[in-house]
Design brief:
Blueprint lengths: L3 E5 L11 H9 L7 E3 L20 H7 L5 E6 L15 E5 L8 H8 L4 E4 L2 H9 L5 E3 L20 E5 L8 H4 L2 H10 L3 E6 L5 H11 L5 E4 L5 H7 L2 E4 L12 H8 L4 E4 L4 H8 L2 E4 L4 H13 L6 H8 L2 H21 L6
Parallel strand pairs: 1-2, 1-3, 3-4, 4-5, 5-6, 7-8, 7-10, 8-9, 10-11, 11-12
Length: about 350
């Protein structure tokens, strides 16, 4: 069996396993078992250590572990060529979790000299990489195990309820991830209820903002492990907002879970998944993370409710995880084969 070492760039904190990237790692271990390492050099967000130094402190442990590994798999929001990658002895697979933009060209080309395969989550991202001469790249659409979720209609008496994922890591992200916009939307529309999935970081600040805006009766924050399927049963739709593609996963798990539970999604245009949502009619795209745009998107969603039947939404994500694993298996096998046959690297 193939064996991998997985590397993520999020803090190694108590709720890290709730993060979507760790769920991906857990799924991929089914086809390539292996340990995981956190390149991020602290147990909480906000390190002042430059990104170019991340991973270097873990090298002794990584070197010991890679003796029994066939390859490394790195997960990072953008195509940053960490200097630590130069010091690894096994071939590298690199997944860009966010989007690839024009300003990433130089770093992506540097990364292509280090990684045997670059995986992106958006078809436009693949086109961009190929236009830069990066041929060892591929598109794999993210997926979840949809069988864990089921459809339950929200209570008839409940106000319109949104489930919001992808909580902020930093103070700046209250704005760039649309949290402030959602709170303002609730302040302007008293019949709107929002359930936030939180990750332990900046919880006190979130509660302060909720109190300052006077929306305590409408907003609930779940700062613990929860049964997401149970919360989705209370929701009419789910939302993830971001002003930039590198702030969240290209296909946020909370939105895939919403579709698996038969609930439509609200998603920012900046997130690569938005093109798929728009093409298949799985929700409404929000052009910018402002309260006004959120409310306009909510109105569009509610007026077109019949366009989002639960069976259509659930079908969009059903059985995707099998394809996700098989495509990764093919990438891993090609990387291992290339390592054994150096001529194929040319």
């Amino acid at each position: 069996m193939m064996r991998a070492l997985y590397h993520v760039t999020i803090p190694d904190w108590p709720l890290a396993n709730c993060e979507a990237v760790m769920q991906d790692v857990q799924a991929l271990r089914r086809i390539a078992p292996g340990a995981s390492f956190h390149f991020y050099p602290a147990r909480a967000p906000g390190t002042r250590i430059p990104r170019r130094l991340w991973g270097l402190n873990r090298l002794p442990a990584i070197w010991r572990a890679e003796r029994s590994a066939d390859f490394h798999h790195i997960f990072n929001p953008d195509p940053f060529p960490f200097p630590a990658l130069h010091l690894l002895h096994r071939p590298i697979v690199y997944t860009v979790l966010g989007g690839v933009k024009d300003h990433h060209r130089r770093m992506a080309q540097s990364l292509a000299r280090l990684a045997r395969a670059i995986i992106v989550s958006g078809e436009d991202d693949l086109v961009r990489l190929r236009s830069w001469g990066i041929s060892r790249s591929c598109f794999i659409q993210p997926a979840i195990d949809a069988s864990r979720f089921s459809y339950s209609p929200p209570p008839h008496s409940a106000p319109f309820t949104l489930l919001a994922g992808s909580a902020p890591w930093t103070l700046e992200q209250f704005s760039s991830k649309g949290v402030d916009a959602l709170l303002k939307a609730a302040q302007q529309r008293r019949d709107l209820r929002i359930l936030f999935l939180w990750r332990g970081v900046l919880f006190a600040e979130m509660m302060r903002r909720i109190g300052a805006m006077g929306v305590e009766a409408q907003v609930q924050v779940f700062n613990e492990l929860v049964d997401v399927n149970r919360l989705l049963a209370q929701a009419h739709a789910s939302v993830v907002l971001a002003e930039r593609s590198d702030l969240v996963k290209a296909y946020p798990h909370s939105l895939l879970e919403s579709l698996a539970a038969g609930k439509p999604v609200l998603i920012s245009r900046a997130i690569p998944m938005s093109a798929w949502v728009e093409r298949l009619g799985l929700g409404v795209v929000v052009e910018h993370a402002t309260a006004e745009r959120v409310l306009a998107a909510l109105d569009a969603l509610r007026s077109r409710a019949d366009a989002f039947p639960p069976e259509k939404l659930r079908a969009a994500v059903a059985h995707q995880s099998d394809r996700f694993l098989e495509q990764h298996r093919q990438v891993y096998q090609s990387v291992i084969a290339a390592q054994r046959d150096p001529a194929s690297n040319n």
